[in-house]
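In the current project phase, work has continued on tokenised descriptions of protein folds. One protein thus recorded appears below exactly as we store it.

——
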Amino acid sequence: MVRVLVTGMSGVGKTSVLGELRRRGFLTVDTDYDGWVTGDGRWDERRMAGLLDEHSDLVVSGTVENQGRFYNRFDHVVLLSAPLQVLIDRVSRRTNNPYGKTAEQQAEIAQYVETVEPLLRQGATLELDARQSVKDLADAIEQLKSS
């Protein structure tokens, strides 16, 4: 029974990796959807605590200001990272999420890579290069779950 948090900047492929893990039969929660994030951009702490109380074997993804409050509830915190230009290319082309299409949003992503990603790196137990295939990233996370 292992809990994993997958985090990283917009465009690293968190949603795609969770989709692959879900396809493989793992319980996953993508906190970018279904009301996990409150109006102030933080996880709904009561809801997240309830999820973690209920499930000891799952993969959660998200990047929010208060995620560090839950790090002690995860066995692994996996940071997916990629060069800024890769992120910008991906968010420009994706169809499942409108964020990242405008110049202002892309500038915001660049700022987050400089200011937020180093903080995520400090809290991560593992960093994976998100330029790898979704299959390879899912394999690495699946290996964590089986160890």
Q: What stands out?
A: The radius of gyration is 14 Å.
